[in-house]
Design goal:
Structural class of chain A: alpha+beta
CATH class of the largest domain in chain A: Mainly Alpha
Mean pLDDT of chain B: 91
Number of helices of chain A: 13
Helix content of chain A: 25-40%
Distance between the termini of chain A: 66 Å
Structural class of chain B: mainly alpha
Oligomer: heterodimer
Strand order of the largest sheet of chain A: 2-1-5-3-4
Number of domains of chain B: 1
Number of strands of chain B: 4
Helix content of chain B: 40-55%
Largest sheet of chain B: 2 strands, antiparallel
Number of strands of chain A: 7
Largest sheet of chain A: 5 strands, mixed
CATH topology of the largest domain in chain A: Fumarate Reductase Iron-sulfur Protein, Chain B, domain 2
């Protein structure tokens, strides 16, 4: 059974934040009681190892608190904030896996805290650390502005002039791009990508998986006129990716980043830069391939 | 109160002090199992295929055994030193070492540059990284931007050669139904060669380059309906590329082993009907 006083505190404080704490109370009723019902054989307590620190350093702090059914890691972090660690910093927003705010590394794996159920984790202390790839601000909060800087370097959608009867597209033409629009910008793919995770010196010349899907989305758009292949090869660092598929493994939206975006982009780059038949075809047909600079400038 | 207009743009810190402990990984699961299994199978295949390629004997079961079974490692057998009956009329006379070495460069190149195998051996052999969120074993990294790894971009050329070899191995499988002196029949060897050919086709057609060349490279599917249909045909196969890669790799070695065991008289090739 959960520890009654601690659970009660958590409920009160969490309720102030609009959180359904789901505390098990004997004889209770309603949603909270239902969610808090104990499963047979479930552990009574959960042990947490949470990174506490800032740019000056840090260490894992260990906590133990009552187990509650149906909780996700973010719930436990909120209960910690409400009880033992009121100054614990963590970024979150929707708690529904759609805002991409609560990215962290749970037991060493990049995941959304709000989408990671406690009961699916193995027994033993649950380790929660900030994303490794980005500079730490405090505790579980990192500075992800690297990604916003990269985003500025991706030339925007550059459509053909609007015809008199307006733009029309067929569903079959937009299906590929729609998958990439599911991205919630949690940056877990950027975090897990070893190109920048383990080699920070690559950051200035590597866009990363999140932006490769942006490049792919634009390149596959039937109305777009820009040709970003040289740009993504020379400046975006597409060749740095060695397709180990970790980005696909961690994507909470299950976007097939490697198979549907990165590899198709690599193949398009081969068309543009490494295929002699492609070169011959462009030369004979006098088709112009945009340089990285022309692509970066955008426009038609 | 600060308004949007008053807000100043702060400099972005791309690098900075990282959070979390400075350890290779915080993972507690068996992350090492997958690269270990991959490395074991890949190394075993390389060792076996190297031996099989250099041994230069017992790769063909011919008329004397009422069979027409040729190992995929030696097909097409194009040099003059090939076992009689195993090669076509036109042969290369200046090649004096094992005929397998002339052929294997193409399937080897196809698999080495394959997007799936790249993932497998970058993780399991090169440890870059060994698994997700496990530290890269190398202190510097330039990916596939320099020689020799920039040659990975030649994958589609090996794909083309791979298709030619698939056609030849399919012909071998069809010829395996021919049992000299007995007529047409089906033996275990026939089935082995047929399964091998099917797996190699599935592996080739599920290739990412194949998917791209079929239709992935077009911007507008509605303007290229045939290419869209082709793309839709190979896309479901592409989703299983990893399975086909492993199955075809293991089975092509088993096919060679089977032919070798029959050719050496170690086991008989049972006629089924």
């Amino acid at each position: 059974m959960p520890d009654a006083p601690e659970s009660a505190d958590a409920t009160d404080d969490a309720a102030d934040d609009g959180i359904e704490a789901g505390v098990d109370r004997p004889g209770g009723s309603g949603l909270g009681a239902a969610a808090g019902a104990e499963s047979p054989g479930a552990p009574d307590r959960v042990a947490m190892r949470v990174w506490r620190g800032d740019p000056g350093g840090g260490e894992f702090a260990e906590y133990e608190l009552a187990a509650q059914d149906g909780e996700v890691v973010l719930d436990v972090i909120h209960r910690l904030q409400a009880t033992d660690a009121p100054d614990l910093a963590c970024r979150w927003n929707c708690k529904a896996g759609k805002c991409g705010s609560c990215s962290a590394e749970i037991n060493g794996r990049p995941r959304l805290m709000c989408m990671t159920r406690m009961d699916e984790l193995p027994e033993g202390p649950v380790t929660v650390a900030p994303m490794r790839t980005f500079p730490i601000i405090k505790d579980l909060v990192t500075d992800v502005s690297f990604n916003y800087e990269v985003a500025k370097t991706v030339p925007a959608f550059s459509p053909v002039p609007e015809p008199p009867d307006g733009y029309r597209m067929q569903q079959v033409d937009i299906e590929r791009g729609q998958e990439f629009r599911k991205c919630i910008e949690c940056f877990l793919c950027q975090d897990v990508c070893h190109v920048i995770r383990d080699h920070e010196e690559n950051k200035p010349r590597y866009a990363g998986p999140r932006f490769f899907i942006r490049f792919a989305e634009l390149e596959m758009h039937p109305l777009d006129t820009n040709d970003r292949r040289e740009l993504v090869r020379q400046k975006g660092g597409l060749g740095m990716c060695n397709i180990t598929k970790c980005c696909t493994e961690v994507c909470p939206e299950h976007i097939k980043i490697t198979d549907n975006a990165i590899i198709p982009m690599k193949e398009r780059v081969v068309d543009a830069a490494y295929d002699p038949i492609g070169w011959l075809g462009r030369t004979i047909m006098r088709r112009h391939k945009r340089s990285a600079e022309e692509a970066a400038a955008g426009g038609q | 109160m600060t308004t949007v207009e008053e807000a100043t743009v702060t400099a972005v810190e791309i690098s900075g002090t990282r959070g979390g402990p400075d350890v290779p990984t915080l993972r507690r699961d068996g992350w090492w199992v997958q690269p270990l299994v991959s490395a074991t199978i890949l190394i075993a295949f390389v060792v076996y295929s190297t031996w099989a390629a250099f041994v230069n004997k017992e790769y063909f079961v011919g008329t004397a055994s009422h069979r027409d079974l040729l190992s995929p490692f030696y097909s097409p057998c194009l040099v003059a030193s090939c076992v009689p009956g195993s090669h076509p009329a036109t042969v290369i006379t200046w090649w004096t070492i094992s005929p397998a070495l002339l052929i294997l460069i193409f399937p080897l190149g196809f698999r080495l540059t394959c997007y799936y195998y790249r993932r497998a051996y970058y993780r399991s052999i090169w440890l870059s990284p060994p698994n997700c969120a496990v530290a890269d074993a190398h202190s510097s990294y330039s990916g596939e931007t320099r020689f020799p790894l920039i040659l990975q971009n030649a994958h589609r050329w090996f794909f083309y050669f791979g298709l030619i070899l698939n056609v030849i191995l399919t012909i071998d499988a069809v010829e395996a139904f021919r049992e000299p002196g007995l007529g047409i029949g089906v033996s275990v060897g026939t089935l082995v060669l047929c399964v091998n050919a099917v797996l190699l086709w599935l592996y080739s057609l599920s290739c990412h380059s194949c998917r791209h060349l079929c239709g992935g490279q077009v911007k507008s599917f509605s303007k290229h309906p045939i290419r869209h249909k082709l793309w839709k045909l190979v896309t479901p196969l592409n989703a299983h590329h990893m399975k086909f890669a492993w199955a075809s790799l293991i089975f092509v070695a088993l096919t060679d082993l089977y032919v070798r065991l029959v050719a050496s008289g170690t086991i008989p090739d049972h006629r089924l009907f």
